[in-house]
Amino acid sequence: MAAVAEATTGWWLLLVLSAAELAVAHHPQPPNIVLLLMDDMGWGDLGVNGEPSRETPNLDRMAAEGMLFPNFYSANPLCSPSRAALLTGRLPIRNGFYTSSAHARNAYTPQEIVGGIPDSEHLLPELLKEAGYTSKIVGKWHLGHRPQFHPLRHGFDEWFGSPNCHFGPYDNRAKPNIPVYRDWEMVGRFYEEFPINLKTGEANLTQLYLQEALDFIERQHTRQRPFFLYWAIDATHAPVYASRPFLGTSQRGRYGDAIREIDDSVGKILSHLRGLGLEKNTLVFFTSDNGAALISAPEQGGSNGPFLCGKQTTFEGGMREPAIAWWPGHIAAGQGINFCPGQNVSGVTTHTQEEHTELPLIFHLGRDPGERFPLSFASAEYQDVLDRTTQVVRQHQEALVPGQPQLNVCNQAVMNWAPPGCEKLGKCLTPPESVPEKCSWPH
Ligand SMILES: [Ca+2]
Protein backbone atom coordinates (compact mmCIF):
# COMPACT_ATOMS: atom_id res chain seq x y z
CA MET A 1 0.00 0.00 0.00
CA ALA A 2 2.67 2.46 -1.04
CA ALA A 3 0.12 5.07 -2.01
CA VAL A 4 -1.44 5.03 1.43
CA ALA A 5 -0.01 7.51 3.88
CA GLU A 6 0.07 7.34 7.62
CA ALA A 7 -1.52 10.64 8.49
CA THR A 8 -2.75 12.74 11.33
CA THR A 9 -4.55 16.01 11.72
CA GLY A 10 -1.17 17.71 12.05
CA TRP A 11 -0.30 16.38 8.64
CA TRP A 12 -3.54 17.84 7.32
CA LEU A 13 -2.65 21.32 8.55
CA LEU A 14 0.81 21.06 7.03
CA LEU A 15 -0.63 20.04 3.68
CA VAL A 16 -3.06 22.95 3.66
CA LEU A 17 -0.49 25.55 4.60
CA SER A 18 2.04 24.18 2.13
CA ALA A 19 -0.56 24.24 -0.62
CA ALA A 20 -1.49 27.80 0.23
CA GLU A 21 2.12 28.96 0.38
CA LEU A 22 3.06 27.28 -2.87
CA ALA A 23 0.02 28.67 -4.54
CA VAL A 24 0.75 32.17 -3.31
CA ALA A 25 4.26 31.86 -4.68
CA HIS A 26 3.38 30.50 -8.12
CA HIS A 27 -0.22 31.33 -8.93
CA PRO A 28 -2.29 34.48 -8.93
CA GLN A 29 -4.90 32.92 -6.64
CA PRO A 30 -4.16 30.37 -3.93
CA PRO A 31 -6.37 27.27 -3.75
CA ASN A 32 -9.65 27.32 -1.92
CA ILE A 33 -9.92 24.91 1.00
CA VAL A 34 -13.05 23.04 2.03
CA LEU A 35 -12.78 20.99 5.20
CA LEU A 36 -15.72 18.66 5.72
CA LEU A 37 -15.56 17.59 9.36
CA MET A 38 -18.04 15.00 10.55
CA ASP A 39 -19.11 14.47 14.14
CA ASP A 40 -18.75 10.97 15.62
CA MET A 41 -18.72 9.38 12.19
CA GLY A 42 -16.81 6.11 12.25
CA TRP A 43 -14.14 4.73 9.97
CA GLY A 44 -16.49 1.93 8.99
CA ASP A 45 -19.40 4.15 7.95
CA LEU A 46 -18.19 4.62 4.38
CA GLY A 47 -18.97 2.16 1.63
CA VAL A 48 -15.43 2.53 0.38
CA ASN A 49 -14.23 1.35 3.78
CA GLY A 50 -16.40 -1.73 3.63
CA GLU A 51 -19.77 -0.67 5.06
CA PRO A 52 -22.00 -3.35 3.56
CA SER A 53 -25.09 -1.21 2.89
CA ARG A 54 -23.05 0.91 0.46
CA GLU A 55 -25.10 4.00 1.18
CA THR A 56 -22.35 6.57 0.61
CA PRO A 57 -22.08 6.71 -3.19
CA ASN A 58 -20.92 10.33 -3.24
CA LEU A 59 -18.18 9.81 -0.67
CA ASP A 60 -17.12 6.61 -2.40
CA ARG A 61 -16.90 8.52 -5.67
CA MET A 62 -14.97 11.28 -3.95
CA ALA A 63 -12.47 8.64 -2.79
CA ALA A 64 -12.28 7.15 -6.27
CA GLU A 65 -11.61 10.59 -7.75
CA GLY A 66 -9.12 11.51 -5.03
CA MET A 67 -7.09 9.86 -2.31
CA LEU A 68 -8.38 7.72 0.53
CA PHE A 69 -6.43 7.64 3.77
CA PRO A 70 -7.12 4.35 5.58
CA ASN A 71 -4.68 5.30 8.35
CA PHE A 72 -5.76 8.81 9.31
CA TYR A 73 -5.90 9.71 12.99
CA SER A 74 -7.46 12.44 15.07
CA ALA A 75 -5.51 13.86 17.97
CA ASN A 76 -8.15 12.88 20.51
CA PRO A 77 -11.24 10.64 20.64
CA LEU A 78 -13.62 13.43 21.69
CA CYS A 79 -15.11 16.49 19.96
CA SER A 80 -13.50 19.56 21.53
CA PRO A 81 -9.86 18.53 21.86
CA SER A 82 -9.94 16.87 18.46
CA ARG A 83 -11.27 20.05 16.83
CA ALA A 84 -8.85 22.26 18.71
CA ALA A 85 -6.01 20.10 17.41
CA LEU A 86 -7.37 20.17 13.87
CA LEU A 87 -7.52 23.97 13.77
CA THR A 88 -4.26 24.65 15.62
CA GLY A 89 -2.13 21.76 14.38
CA ARG A 90 -1.12 21.17 17.98
CA LEU A 91 -1.84 18.39 20.40
CA PRO A 92 -4.49 19.05 23.07
CA ILE A 93 -1.81 18.93 25.75
CA ARG A 94 -0.19 21.92 23.99
CA ASN A 95 -3.25 23.94 22.96
CA GLY A 96 -4.91 23.64 26.34
CA PHE A 97 -7.79 21.35 25.47
CA TYR A 98 -7.28 18.88 28.25
CA THR A 99 -7.87 18.59 31.94
CA SER A 100 -5.44 17.64 34.65
CA SER A 101 -8.22 16.57 36.99
CA ALA A 102 -9.40 13.53 35.01
CA HIS A 103 -8.53 11.54 31.93
CA ALA A 104 -7.85 14.06 29.16
CA ARG A 105 -9.82 12.00 26.69
CA ASN A 106 -13.00 12.76 28.60
CA ALA A 107 -12.67 16.55 28.65
CA TYR A 108 -14.73 18.65 26.28
CA THR A 109 -16.69 21.92 26.32
CA PRO A 110 -20.25 21.58 27.62
CA GLN A 111 -22.29 24.67 28.41
CA GLU A 112 -20.85 24.75 31.84
CA ILE A 113 -17.26 25.11 30.71
CA VAL A 114 -15.43 28.30 31.53
CA GLY A 115 -12.45 27.84 29.27
CA GLY A 116 -12.00 27.81 25.53
CA ILE A 117 -9.43 28.37 22.84
CA PRO A 118 -6.67 30.66 24.16
CA ASP A 119 -5.75 33.84 22.28
CA SER A 120 -2.19 32.57 22.19
CA GLU A 121 -3.18 29.78 19.79
CA HIS A 122 -2.90 30.44 16.06
CA LEU A 123 -5.80 28.88 14.24
CA LEU A 124 -5.83 27.88 10.61
CA PRO A 125 -8.23 30.69 9.55
CA GLU A 126 -5.96 33.26 11.24
CA LEU A 127 -3.01 32.05 9.19
CA LEU A 128 -5.07 31.92 6.02
CA LYS A 129 -6.31 35.45 6.60
CA GLU A 130 -2.73 36.62 6.24
CA ALA A 131 -2.72 34.94 2.82
CA GLY A 132 -5.88 36.79 1.78
CA TYR A 133 -8.47 34.13 2.52
CA THR A 134 -12.05 34.62 3.67
CA SER A 135 -13.11 31.92 6.14
CA LYS A 136 -16.46 30.59 7.25
CA ILE A 137 -17.41 28.03 9.86
CA VAL A 138 -20.69 26.23 9.34
CA GLY A 139 -21.92 24.08 12.21
CA LYS A 140 -20.38 23.18 15.54
CA TRP A 141 -17.53 25.27 16.96
CA HIS A 142 -16.99 23.61 20.35
CA LEU A 143 -13.88 25.57 21.29
CA GLY A 144 -15.62 27.61 23.99
CA HIS A 145 -18.88 29.57 23.98
CA ARG A 146 -18.03 32.65 26.01
CA PRO A 147 -17.49 35.92 24.09
CA GLN A 148 -13.69 35.81 24.06
CA PHE A 149 -13.78 32.39 22.40
CA HIS A 150 -16.14 33.38 19.59
CA PRO A 151 -14.92 31.97 16.24
CA LEU A 152 -14.98 35.44 14.65
CA ARG A 153 -12.40 36.44 17.26
CA HIS A 154 -10.20 33.57 16.12
CA GLY A 155 -9.86 34.09 12.41
CA PHE A 156 -13.23 33.23 10.95
CA ASP A 157 -15.13 35.91 9.03
CA GLU A 158 -18.52 34.22 9.08
CA TRP A 159 -20.37 31.69 11.20
CA PHE A 160 -23.63 29.88 10.99
CA GLY A 161 -23.98 27.25 13.67
CA SER A 162 -23.75 26.53 17.35
CA PRO A 163 -21.07 26.77 20.00
CA ASN A 164 -21.99 23.43 21.62
CA CYS A 165 -23.58 20.08 20.82
CA HIS A 166 -27.28 20.01 20.00
CA PHE A 167 -28.20 18.37 23.29
CA GLY A 168 -31.59 19.18 24.71
CA PRO A 169 -34.29 20.14 24.83
CA TYR A 170 -33.73 22.08 27.99
CA ASP A 171 -36.37 24.00 29.86
CA ASN A 172 -34.60 27.36 29.53
CA ARG A 173 -34.67 27.56 33.26
CA ALA A 174 -32.24 25.02 34.65
CA LYS A 175 -30.40 25.04 31.36
CA PRO A 176 -30.84 27.10 28.21
CA ASN A 177 -31.25 25.56 24.84
CA ILE A 178 -28.12 25.87 22.75
CA PRO A 179 -28.08 29.02 20.62
CA VAL A 180 -27.57 29.09 16.89
CA TYR A 181 -25.47 31.98 15.63
CA ARG A 182 -25.26 33.88 12.42
CA ASP A 183 -21.91 35.59 12.63
CA TRP A 184 -21.82 37.53 15.81
CA GLU A 185 -25.35 37.15 17.08
CA MET A 186 -27.66 34.31 17.91
CA VAL A 187 -30.62 33.90 15.63
CA GLY A 188 -32.46 31.21 17.57
CA ARG A 189 -32.08 28.11 19.66
CA PHE A 190 -32.14 24.39 19.04
CA TYR A 191 -35.54 22.86 19.79
CA GLU A 192 -37.15 26.28 19.37
CA GLU A 193 -36.48 28.19 16.15
CA PHE A 194 -34.33 25.26 14.98
CA PRO A 195 -36.41 22.22 15.87
CA ILE A 196 -35.09 18.71 16.37
CA ASN A 197 -37.77 16.10 16.90
CA LEU A 198 -36.22 13.54 19.23
CA LYS A 199 -39.10 11.15 18.70
CA THR A 200 -38.92 10.99 14.91
CA GLY A 201 -35.34 12.20 14.40
CA GLU A 202 -36.48 14.89 12.02
CA ALA A 203 -34.50 18.12 11.70
CA ASN A 204 -33.60 20.17 8.66
CA LEU A 205 -30.27 21.37 10.05
CA THR A 206 -28.12 19.51 7.52
CA GLN A 207 -30.09 21.20 4.75
CA LEU A 208 -29.53 24.60 6.35
CA TYR A 209 -25.83 23.87 6.71
CA LEU A 210 -25.66 22.68 3.11
CA GLN A 211 -27.27 25.86 1.85
CA GLU A 212 -24.87 27.96 3.89
CA ALA A 213 -21.96 26.13 2.28
CA LEU A 214 -23.28 26.51 -1.26
CA ASP A 215 -24.06 30.21 -0.76
CA PHE A 216 -20.67 30.94 0.73
CA ILE A 217 -18.82 29.18 -2.08
CA GLU A 218 -20.82 31.07 -4.68
CA ARG A 219 -20.29 34.46 -3.01
CA GLN A 220 -16.53 33.96 -2.75
CA HIS A 221 -16.43 32.79 -6.34
CA THR A 222 -18.16 36.01 -7.38
CA ARG A 223 -15.69 38.03 -5.34
CA GLN A 224 -12.77 36.11 -6.88
CA ARG A 225 -11.28 35.67 -3.45
CA PRO A 226 -9.69 32.51 -2.01
CA PHE A 227 -11.80 30.95 0.71
CA PHE A 228 -11.68 28.45 3.54
CA LEU A 229 -14.94 26.68 4.36
CA TYR A 230 -15.01 24.68 7.57
CA TRP A 231 -18.17 22.58 7.32
CA ALA A 232 -18.47 21.09 10.80
CA ILE A 233 -21.89 19.50 10.74
CA ASP A 234 -23.19 17.31 13.53
CA ALA A 235 -26.09 15.12 12.30
CA THR A 236 -24.24 11.93 13.21
CA HIS A 237 -23.76 12.98 16.83
CA ALA A 238 -26.50 11.64 19.12
CA PRO A 239 -29.29 12.60 19.07
CA VAL A 240 -28.84 11.89 15.36
CA TYR A 241 -31.17 13.57 12.91
CA ALA A 242 -32.08 13.85 9.25
CA SER A 243 -34.49 15.94 7.27
CA ARG A 244 -37.77 14.43 6.24
CA PRO A 245 -36.71 13.32 2.72
CA PHE A 246 -33.99 11.15 4.22
CA LEU A 247 -35.77 9.76 7.29
CA GLY A 248 -36.46 6.05 6.95
CA THR A 249 -34.47 5.68 3.74
CA SER A 250 -31.47 3.83 5.14
CA GLN A 251 -30.99 0.13 5.77
CA ARG A 252 -29.12 1.21 8.89
CA GLY A 253 -31.86 3.04 10.73
CA ARG A 254 -31.86 6.64 11.86
CA TYR A 255 -28.09 6.91 11.99
CA GLY A 256 -27.96 5.70 8.40
CA ASP A 257 -30.52 8.34 7.44
CA ALA A 258 -28.17 11.01 8.75
CA ILE A 259 -25.29 9.46 6.83
CA ARG A 260 -27.29 9.38 3.63
CA GLU A 261 -28.21 13.05 3.95
CA ILE A 262 -24.61 13.97 4.61
CA ASP A 263 -23.43 11.90 1.67
CA ASP A 264 -25.96 13.59 -0.57
CA SER A 265 -24.85 17.00 0.71
CA VAL A 266 -21.19 16.25 0.05
CA GLY A 267 -22.16 15.29 -3.48
CA LYS A 268 -23.95 18.61 -3.91
CA ILE A 269 -20.98 20.59 -2.59
CA LEU A 270 -18.58 18.86 -5.00
CA SER A 271 -21.06 19.35 -7.86
CA HIS A 272 -21.34 23.02 -6.95
CA LEU A 273 -17.57 23.42 -7.10
CA ARG A 274 -17.54 21.74 -10.50
CA GLY A 275 -20.45 23.84 -11.71
CA LEU A 276 -18.59 27.02 -10.84
CA GLY A 277 -15.38 25.73 -12.40
CA LEU A 278 -13.62 25.75 -9.04
CA GLU A 279 -12.77 22.07 -8.70
CA LYS A 280 -9.19 22.38 -9.96
CA ASN A 281 -8.47 25.19 -7.55
CA THR A 282 -10.13 23.75 -4.45
CA LEU A 283 -8.73 21.19 -2.04
CA VAL A 284 -11.58 19.34 -0.33
CA PHE A 285 -10.79 17.21 2.69
CA PHE A 286 -13.28 14.94 4.41
CA THR A 287 -12.80 13.44 7.87
CA SER A 288 -14.39 13.02 11.31
CA ASP A 289 -13.51 14.39 14.72
CA ASN A 290 -13.52 11.04 16.52
CA GLY A 291 -14.68 7.47 16.12
CA ALA A 292 -18.28 6.32 16.20
CA ALA A 293 -19.98 6.35 19.59
CA LEU A 294 -20.63 2.66 20.09
CA ILE A 295 -22.53 3.39 23.27
CA SER A 296 -25.21 4.95 21.05
CA ALA A 297 -25.09 2.36 18.25
CA PRO A 298 -26.74 1.09 16.19
CA GLU A 299 -29.72 3.47 16.12
CA GLN A 300 -27.81 6.57 17.25
CA GLY A 301 -24.22 5.60 16.51
CA GLY A 302 -22.10 4.34 13.64
CA SER A 303 -19.46 1.76 12.79
CA ASN A 304 -15.72 1.71 13.34
CA GLY A 305 -15.26 -1.19 10.93
CA PRO A 306 -12.82 -3.80 12.14
CA PHE A 307 -11.36 -1.56 14.84
CA LEU A 308 -11.66 -1.95 18.57
CA CYS A 309 -14.09 0.20 20.59
CA GLY A 310 -14.92 3.79 19.65
CA LYS A 311 -15.38 7.36 20.81
CA GLN A 312 -13.86 8.24 24.18
CA THR A 313 -11.31 5.45 23.93
CA THR A 314 -7.79 5.63 22.58
CA PHE A 315 -8.16 2.32 20.78
CA GLU A 316 -8.22 2.38 16.99
CA GLY A 317 -12.00 2.72 16.95
CA GLY A 318 -11.77 5.97 18.87
CA MET A 319 -9.07 7.70 16.91
CA ARG A 320 -8.77 6.28 13.40
CA GLU A 321 -10.99 8.35 11.12
CA PRO A 322 -12.39 8.09 7.66
CA ALA A 323 -10.44 10.53 5.49
CA ILE A 324 -10.50 11.55 1.83
CA ALA A 325 -8.60 14.26 -0.05
CA TRP A 326 -10.07 15.53 -3.35
CA TRP A 327 -8.48 18.00 -5.68
CA PRO A 328 -8.93 17.16 -9.38
CA GLY A 329 -5.85 17.83 -11.44
CA HIS A 330 -3.63 17.94 -8.36
CA ILE A 331 -4.39 14.71 -6.52
CA ALA A 332 -4.46 11.74 -8.88
CA ALA A 333 -7.67 9.73 -8.85
CA GLY A 334 -8.04 6.40 -7.17
CA GLN A 335 -5.07 6.55 -4.87
CA GLY A 336 -4.94 4.64 -1.67
CA ILE A 337 -8.18 2.68 -1.82
CA ASN A 338 -7.68 -0.23 0.51
CA PHE A 339 -9.74 -3.28 -0.34
CA CYS A 340 -8.35 -5.24 2.59
CA PRO A 341 -8.71 -2.89 5.56
CA GLY A 342 -7.10 -4.32 8.64
CA GLN A 343 -6.04 -7.47 6.77
CA ASN A 344 -3.05 -6.36 4.74
CA VAL A 345 -0.46 -9.01 3.94
CA SER A 346 2.88 -7.69 2.81
CA GLY A 347 3.51 -8.35 -0.87
CA VAL A 348 0.05 -9.87 -1.34
CA THR A 349 -2.70 -7.26 -0.82
CA THR A 350 -1.00 -4.58 -2.89
CA HIS A 351 -2.91 -1.60 -4.24
CA THR A 352 -1.40 -1.81 -7.71
CA GLN A 353 -2.30 -4.58 -10.09
CA GLU A 354 0.70 -6.78 -10.66
CA GLU A 355 1.54 -9.39 -13.26
CA HIS A 356 1.59 -12.84 -11.65
CA THR A 357 0.99 -15.01 -14.69
CA GLU A 358 4.44 -16.59 -14.81
CA LEU A 359 4.96 -16.75 -11.07
CA PRO A 360 1.53 -16.79 -9.38
CA LEU A 361 1.04 -16.49 -5.66
CA ILE A 362 0.01 -19.91 -4.40
CA PHE A 363 -1.46 -20.68 -0.99
CA HIS A 364 -2.14 -23.98 0.75
CA LEU A 365 -5.70 -23.42 1.83
CA GLY A 366 -5.64 -26.47 4.09
CA ARG A 367 -2.81 -25.18 6.23
CA ASP A 368 -3.40 -21.48 5.57
CA PRO A 369 -7.08 -20.72 4.86
CA GLY A 370 -6.50 -17.03 5.65
CA GLU A 371 -4.04 -16.73 2.72
CA ARG A 372 -1.43 -15.12 4.92
CA PHE A 373 1.63 -17.12 3.81
CA PRO A 374 2.17 -17.70 0.08
CA LEU A 375 4.27 -20.76 -0.71
CA SER A 376 7.92 -20.00 -1.30
CA PHE A 377 8.74 -19.76 -4.99
CA ALA A 378 11.89 -21.80 -4.36
CA SER A 379 10.12 -24.71 -2.68
CA ALA A 380 9.52 -28.07 -4.34
CA GLU A 381 5.90 -27.86 -3.23
CA TYR A 382 5.43 -24.60 -5.12
CA GLN A 383 7.00 -26.01 -8.29
CA ASP A 384 4.85 -29.14 -8.15
CA VAL A 385 1.60 -27.14 -7.77
CA LEU A 386 2.66 -24.65 -10.44
CA ASP A 387 3.38 -27.45 -12.96
CA ARG A 388 -0.03 -29.03 -12.39
CA THR A 389 -1.84 -25.71 -12.46
CA THR A 390 -0.09 -24.60 -15.64
CA GLN A 391 -1.27 -27.74 -17.38
CA VAL A 392 -4.89 -27.09 -16.37
CA VAL A 393 -4.64 -23.48 -17.50
CA ARG A 394 -3.27 -24.52 -20.87
CA GLN A 395 -6.12 -26.99 -21.41
CA HIS A 396 -8.61 -24.26 -20.49
CA GLN A 397 -7.11 -21.71 -22.89
CA GLU A 398 -7.05 -24.16 -25.80
CA ALA A 399 -10.74 -24.97 -25.39
CA LEU A 400 -11.93 -21.48 -24.58
CA VAL A 401 -14.53 -19.70 -26.77
CA PRO A 402 -14.98 -16.15 -25.39
CA GLY A 403 -18.51 -14.76 -25.14
CA GLN A 404 -19.56 -11.26 -26.13
CA PRO A 405 -18.60 -8.89 -23.29
CA GLN A 406 -21.73 -7.56 -21.57
CA LEU A 407 -20.23 -5.02 -19.24
CA ASN A 408 -18.64 -2.51 -21.59
CA VAL A 409 -21.49 -0.06 -22.17
CA CYS A 410 -23.51 1.89 -19.63
CA ASN A 411 -26.58 4.06 -20.10
CA GLN A 412 -28.54 6.01 -17.53
CA ALA A 413 -31.72 5.39 -19.49
CA VAL A 414 -31.78 1.64 -18.92
CA MET A 415 -32.07 1.73 -15.17
CA ASN A 416 -35.21 0.64 -13.35
CA TRP A 417 -37.20 3.78 -14.14
CA ALA A 418 -40.38 2.02 -15.06
CA PRO A 419 -40.37 -1.70 -14.18
CA PRO A 420 -43.39 -3.85 -15.13
CA GLY A 421 -46.47 -2.97 -13.11
CA CYS A 422 -45.31 0.52 -12.17
CA GLU A 423 -48.42 2.16 -13.71
CA LYS A 424 -50.75 0.50 -11.22
CA LEU A 425 -48.76 1.89 -8.36
CA GLY A 426 -48.15 5.32 -9.82
CA LYS A 427 -44.44 4.68 -9.45
CA CYS A 428 -43.32 5.04 -13.06
CA LEU A 429 -40.48 7.41 -13.73
CA THR A 430 -39.46 9.04 -16.98
CA PRO A 431 -36.02 7.85 -18.00
CA PRO A 432 -33.43 10.37 -19.18
CA GLU A 433 -32.26 10.60 -22.77
CA SER A 434 -30.49 7.48 -23.95
CA VAL A 435 -26.74 8.11 -23.92
CA PRO A 436 -24.67 4.96 -24.27
CA GLU A 437 -21.23 5.38 -22.75
CA LYS A 438 -18.28 3.34 -21.75
CA CYS A 439 -18.75 2.09 -18.22
CA SER A 440 -16.22 3.33 -15.74
CA TRP A 441 -15.09 1.20 -12.84
CA PRO A 442 -13.38 3.57 -10.48
CA HIS A 443 -12.96 0.99 -7.73
CA1 LIG B 1 -17.48 14.18 18.06
Biggest pleated sheet? 9 strands, mixed
The proportion of strand residues reads: 5-15%
N-end to C-end Cα span: 15 Å
Domain tally: 1
**Ligands in the structure?**
calcium ion
Assigned CATH superfamily: Alkaline Phosphatase, subunit A
Rough outline: globular
Q: Bin the helical content.
A: 25-40%
Stretches with pLDDT under 50, minimum 5 residues: 1-5
Any idea what the CATH architecture is?
A: 3-Layer(aba) Sandwich
As laid out across the biggest beta sheet, the strand order is: 3-12-10-2-9-5-6-7-8
| Secondary structure category | alpha/beta
Which value, in Å, is the CA radius of gyration?
A: 25 Å
> Tally of extended strands?
14
CATH topology category name: Alkaline Phosphatase, subunit A
In round numbers, the mean pLDDT is 90
Order of helices and strands: EHEHEEHHHEEEEHEHEHEEHEHE
CATH class: Alpha Beta
Helix run count: 10
Family: Belongs to the sulfatase family.
Cofactor: Ca(2+)
Keywords: Calcium, Disulfide bond, Glycoprotein, Hydrolase, Lysosome, Metal-binding, Signal
Organism: Jaculus jaculus (Lesser Egyptian jerboa)
What does this structure look like?
This is N-acetylgalactosamine-6-sulfatase. GO terms for molecular function: arylsulfatase activity; metal ion binding; N-acetylgalactosamine-6-sulfatase activity. InterPro entries: Alkaline_phosphatase_core_sf (IPR017850), Sulfatase (IPR050738), Sulfatase_CS (IPR024607), Sulfatase_N (IPR000917). It catalyses: Hydrolysis of the 6-sulfate groups of the N-acetyl-D-galactosamine 6-sulfate units of chondroitin sulfate and of the D-galactose 6-sulfate units of keratan sulfate. Keywords: Calcium, Disulfide bond, Glycoprotein, Hydrolase, Lysosome, Metal-binding, Signal. With 443 residues, this protein is α/β, with parallel strands linked by helices. It has one domain: 3-Layer(aba) Sandwich (Alkaline Phosphatase, subunit A), CATH 3.40.720. Helices cover 26% and strands 13% of the residues. It contains ten helices and 14 strands. The chain has helices at 9-26, 57-65, 79-88, 92-95, 124-130, 205-223, 254-275, 316-319, 380-399, 422-425; strands spanning 6-8, 32-38, 67-68, 71-73, 134-140, 158-162, 179-182, 185-189, 227-232, 282-288, 320-321, 323-326, 409-410, 437-438. The strands form three sheets. A nine-stranded mixed sheet has the order 3-12-10-2-9-5-6-7-8, sandwiched between helices. It has a three-stranded mixed sheet with strand order 1-4-11. Strand 7 and strand 8 (185-189) form a beta hairpin. Helix 2 (57-65) packs across helix 7 (254-275) and helix 6 (205-223) runs parallel beside helix 7. It starts with 5 loop residues before the first strand and ends in a 5-residue tail after the last strand. The structure holds calcium ion (CA). Calcium ion (CA) is lined by residues 39-40, 79, 237, 289-290.
